[in-house]
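Incident log, structure service

09:12 report received: a user says their structure output differs between two submissions of the same chain.
09:20 pulled the input from the user's history:
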Amino acid sequence: MAKSKGRLTLPSERNFLAQTQELLDRWGADAIRDSDGTKLEEAVKDLDASIYTTYFVARNHNDFIKDHMEECQQLYLMSSFHTASEESLAIDFMQGYYREQVVPDYHHDPKEWWEVINRTTGQVVPTSQWQVDQERDLVIVEGAEPFHEYTVSFLVYKIWDPTQMYNHITNNWGDSVAHDIPFDVRQPHSNRFMSDYLRRWCQENPKTDVVRFTTFFYHFTLVFNDKAKEKFVDWFGYGASVSPAAILAFQEAKGYRLRPEDFVDQGYYNTAFRVPSKAYLDYVDFQSHFVAQEAKKLVDIVHEAGKEAMMFLGDNWIGTEPYGPYFKDIGLDAVVGSVGGGATLRMIADIPHVKYTEGRFLPYFFPDTFYEGNDPTIEANENWLTARRAIMRKPVDRIGYGGYLSLAYKFPKFVSYIEEVADEFRDIYAIVKDTKPYVGLKVGILNAWGALRTWQTHMVAHALHYKQIYSYLGILEALSGAAVEVVFLSFDQVIADGVPADVDVLINAGDAGTAFSGGQHWARPELLSAIRRFVYQGGGLVGVGEPSAHLQNGRFFQLAEILGVDKELGFSLSTDKYFTQAQGSHFITADLEAGQVPDFGESMHNLYALSEETEILEYSNGEVHMAAHDYGQGRGVYLAGLPYSIDNTRLLMRALYYAAHKEADFNKWHSSNPAVEVHAYPAKGKYAIVNNTAEPQVTTVYDGQGISHEVSLAASEIRWEEI
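09:34 re-ran on a clean worker, output below:
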């Protein structure tokens, strides 16, 4: 592999000049950054590289906010459920929360801004029936219904930024580092300070080339418990952007007043899994518009100083969602985000309206990974191979790392491996950037969020694992590096405009009642008609888990007649179900070995075929886990789950091609071995044969005309050939 330079960002720190220069050369880096907890010495800033400087807009300025504590950021929290055993009930609403992170807001009248709810009836308790004991942080309810449950929805001030808190605890900073207090851009003193300080800072940091905003104003919802452990985390959550000022401004803009319940949402806090209410969607839109306006002011200041403005896709990113309608107005030069795998890479790489994108690869150089006896190369290799699939389809413009470089430097094997990764990335980028790869299908992911959460459905943050979602997130991971075009469609969009004419297959995946499956959206006849029409006229539908699930009118799966299966809920046990015979062979299962049962992850149970016309592809334990079914000129395919794996990626691709009636095109730019993928770039006259494993592979490769030849690949090898 040829040695190359550029497109890589290297972290550094104080007293590490010589080693920084060494790795600058070895890794071919052309940019140097600081991190949370590190600073660059002046000599490092004079090296032959662009200088990224982390900039915290709404924290790291305790000298300011300590004089304006009424302008701390806020959020609504809900107490635990308390059962009344008599007519008087005392609720310790702060029970279970970390008092070093949040404190009750008594600056604003609780009678106006808080709510006490009888959770047994769902009714709001009149303010005349409860009082606040501020000395003991108690709400006293009088006239309670015995053995009814009650909660308090209350406002708090955040007095410790949650990301800094995590870093503080992870690195044992102790008393040597102050707790960063976050402040609110919507408040007058804070708003003025943010602009004035940035102007001064730009003048005082002439060697900074790129201001790395981490991020802007509002942190995603992250609340700790009284043991200083995470209690609630939602990477998409807008709950920590609320304040009385925001609610009043919302009322003026939208014409109605939000309640505390609109934020606490019965204790679910409007996570991305919840089907969003109209009020919550309105609030997201409202805050995003406001944040974009305020962020643009700061970006303009940076540009006036002759520097570039980069945003980190994380931490305080709420209101800056890159696929939202207002993101383009901010005027950013770049976005950088953490790469957990292929789906997160595409989430970053596909971002519009910026000059370049950057992926921060794992592992982060922190002591939880870089410690004696551990091999960080293992995580780095896994991270690179999964992300590389997506890079072959749509590359980020740069890669980089973060944390303490001194920790990584202690691991020579790791240092050498990243040197290889950097060179390989630059080689790939030189060929595939701004080149449309061959695609065989266009796939639409149908969910409640639509394009706003492009590549983010079923995601919780940087490819973190949740037991309930890995069986669905695997779909996105598989698609991120596949020869398909992917769009994200909302139910409202399909109702308004129908399924886009160029979409070949729709995917609806998720547990019943979630934003991803659709929940109550499936009660809308116009949605059902639109999708039935699409499939009947030749389109495809792939359903995973509990697609179109909403119990009404004798169906649980509202599109059961397309999928050929429904789920037994116990209501039709008296109806015999005779169709249990799985097919011996099928296009979808052609790459499975004899007797191989696909990995359905958490799977689904009690699925049954509706008729003998359903093609049962896997049947065991008295239930269907995979099936196909003709519907008019189109087809439906059902899968009980699809975690990411090489075999499941191939299974999904076969299911998509079958649903689209495009089996004849499946062997175009194709590898017989699922561990190897083929990416063609007709405009460049090249195609790549990619081994996605750390083991040697042999495969038969088919070109765009279906002509084949055998190829042997070394571990993780990319073989480039001419078309």
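09:41 both user submissions now match this output. Likely a transient worker issue. Closing.
09:42 reviewer note: The mean pLDDT is 96. Residues 130 and 202 are 51 Å apart (CA to CA).
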